[in-house]
């Protein structure tokens, strides 16, 4: 007989930290004014200021009830309570750059000095189109229609308005970005449940971060509010790391690589990391709920030089165009970077690998740079001995 799926129950968020952290000052884009007279024009100004100056911002007024959000958190929590052998049945071919399904913890060394590995699990659910199969554990499979409705509401109520506002800000036709991010065309969008498991105090004291500085490869990433402080952004203007404060009834949004390529670098792909939480939150797990939006797979990531704004400001070429290399499609870029992410080893050269001709990765953390420099010196000494 089939095993009965337990009810989700309620999801209780842990208390916010009481520590006085160096919070980033981020703009809040209120979509409740989107359809008012002059609403789009005013919001477009706010959005472009946010992604030019910080690359991170909050969105509110998107008409998705908190109850539905909490159900998704509860679903993620229930899935991660499964035994590892059950979750592992849904692990894709990670070495080939595939990520839909379960990605187990412990694949990355997060502290090269001590060899401590990550405790990060993720479960990625692709678009609900004929391009993707949906074969999940029963906890997810039996609630798939609810997840589908939730994911599609993020597209229609959050992403479509943001892409429209970005087009207005760049003086492009309003559908310029929505038509290359439409839901029904194949792209590698995915909805994610992500868990950072708590660590012993002695490990947290040794490691520098739970994940080092990086950029996301798509267009926009949506992160629902969860109260464990750990997300930090590197301020583009000062290069200082700032904490991102959880804000009630908001989604935290960051701009990513694909939008930077499509705008010749005018839109920032924001550097961020997940660091060790403050001491009053280190005893709890950190559960995240995210959506990664990406252009259609066939879209070539060339600069939108038809934008009057980009022409006036002189943002007419991205990294591939400047170097004279072929401009990749989104599919080529996605699987090249994902393959690098999944196969990266504890070798300094891998942190600055060429993802595709014309684009070389970087090390964004001074702490990691110091560790890698020490490692290179030790290797040189061993080779000379």
From TrEMBL:
| Name of this chain's protein | Fe2OG dioxygenase domain-containing protein
| Alphabetical list of InterPro entries matching this protein | DIOX_N, IPNS-like_FE2OG_OXY, IPNS-like_sf, Iron_ascorbate_oxido_reductase
- For the Isopenicillin N synthase-like Fe(2+) 2OG dioxygenase domain, which residue ranges apply? 211-294
The residue ranges of the Non-haem dioxygenase N-terminal domain are 28-128
Organism field? Schizophyllum amplum
